[in-house]
Structures are given as structure tokens and as C-alpha cells.
Amino acid sequence: MCPAVIPQNLGQQPPNEAPVSPGSPNTALARVRTRALSYLRVSGKGQIGGDGFPRQRTGIAAFAEANALDVVEEFRDEGVSGTLGLAERPGLTALLEAATAAGIDTVLVEKADRLARDLVESELLLRIFRDHGIRVIEAEAGTDLTNGSDDGNPTGVLIRQVLAAVAQFEKSGLVAKLRAARDRVRRQRGRCEGPPVYGARGAEAAGLKRLLELAIDPDGKPRSLAKIAAALNAEQVPTRTGRPWARSTVQTLLARQRATSRSHAVTGRLTP
User: Fold this and answer.
1) Alpha-carbon distance 220 to 223, whole Å?
2) Whole-angstrom Cα distance, residue 90 to residue 72?
3) Which residue range forms the structural domain that includes residue 63?
4) Separation of alpha carbons 8 and 204, rounded Å
5) What confidence tens digit (pLDDT) does each residue in 55-78 have?
6) What is the Cα–Cα distance from 109 to 125, expressed in whole angstroms?
7) Torsion angle of alpha carbons 95, 99, 105, 108, nearest 10°?
């Protein structure tokens, strides 16, 4: 008597597995996603609330999605120059520690200049990551910045160093432009850095106007600093800090006003 033939259930879901709904991806064929960390950086304190971080985050997210990478944590350095080393970057230091502890071997940056804007520092940082078995990928072009001579890839070294050199060149050009702009502003206004001078803001203009009026008495003679401060306090003219007017504050504002007036006078004489 012939043995019974057992149906092979060919082309069907195995009986011991949960059914797969139509259109569901085959998990056996799904791309394996790799965990990664992201690093963001802006150089100036004034850039912290600007477009820099959102732009970098968006670029990194798009690259990660297209390359089956899961960015599990973001690290950033706020107001930190790209010419500084690892010891002076708390965000990058924390990223390296986290990657090493979690066994994550992929770090994403938007562009090479977000990692460094100095060729030497860039090479030093990338060597540290290479020594830890971590690759640093530039999302903009998909370049693995950690490709080095140890990999037997001289072309990778050339590309990496060209990118770092271009970043350093762009930084130098930007610094020169900013310096020229600051010098121009100083010639026009007498100062550039720091918060706006008292009187530059709309609410303070009336206060500065009153201070200048009080500087000269009805007889055309200069008032003492103490009398000016006392009059401003009596009239409840507000200071920027909310504290009472002091002789030193009045003196500073009067001296600044005289310097600005002299600067404008000189500029007027030099203007054809």
C-alpha cells in the first residue's frame, strides 16, 4: 500500500506563520535599517535661532530616509567655530562617547564644513572617528569623509581634503567680508559689536532725546552729570535695565553722542 502524499502548500503562507495581508511588504526582503547619529553645528551665537539647524536637520533626514538609516539621536554645537578641536566641542564629544557606548558606527553631517572649517582640524577629527571604527558621511553629496589612506583609497583622501580645503577657504573669505562690513559700520556709527546703543530702539529714543536736552541748562551752560541723572530720575525716564540713572551712565551716553557727532561731521566733510 502506497504511503499517503502530504500536500506541499506551495506558494502559500506556511501554516505556522501569521497571515500577511495583501500589499504588505515581505519582511524577509525589507531593507535592514542602520542606526546613525547626526551632528549639527553653527558658528555664531546669533545663528542659534536661525535657519541653520532646521536646514541641516532636513538635509540629514532626507539622506537618512533614502539610504535606510535611522537617526536615533542628534547632537549639536551652538555658537562653536569650525576651527576648534574635539576638546572644545561639547556636542561632538558627547556624540563620540554615545556612538562608542552604543556601538553605532555611522555619523551624518549636512556638509563637510559642519564638521570642520579647517583642513588640519578636519583631518584630526576624522582620524579620531576612523580609529573608533566610525564613518562620517556628508549628507549633501553622500561622501564618506572617513575614507582614508588606511582603506587603500587615495581618491577618497583627495576628495576629503579638497572638501576641507574649500571649507577653510570659504571661511576665510567670509571672515574677510564680515571684517570689512564691521569696519564700515564702525566708521558710520562709531561701533558695531554688542547690543544696540541706548536710543537706537524706538522706546529709548525719547529717553536719549530728553537726556541731551537736560545736558544744557536754560542759560546755555552744561549741567553736571549728577543734576542730569537726578532730573531723569525725577521725570521717571526709564533706563534699559530699569535701574535708576547714574552719573556714569549719563557720562557714557554723552561721550558716545559726542563721538558719533564728530564721526558724522568727518564723514560729511569727506563725502564729495
Assistant:
1) 9
2) 19
3) 34-173
4) 88
5) 999 999 999 999 999 999 999 999
6) 13
7) -20
What lies within 8 Å, CB to CB, of 158 at 6+ separation is: none
Can you tell me whether residue 99 is helix, strand or coil? helix
CATH of the domain at 160: 3.40.50.1390
* 144 found inside a domain: yes
Contact, 64 vs 56, CB < 8 A? no
Judge if 237 and 114 occupy the same domain. Answer: no
Average pLDDT taken over every residue of the chain: 78
Give CA–CA dist 38/67, Å, rounded: 14
CA-CA distance, 140 to 150, in Å (whole number)? Answer: 24
Q: pTM for this one?
A: 0.51
| Nearest one of 101, 164, 124, 125 to 39, comparing CA atoms | 125
How many angstroms separate the CA atoms of 4 and 12, rounded?
A: 21
Same domain? For 210 and 155 the reply is no
Question: First vs last Cα of the chain: how many Å apart?
Answer: 119
> How far apart are the C-alpha atoms of 166 and 159, rounded to whole Å?
11
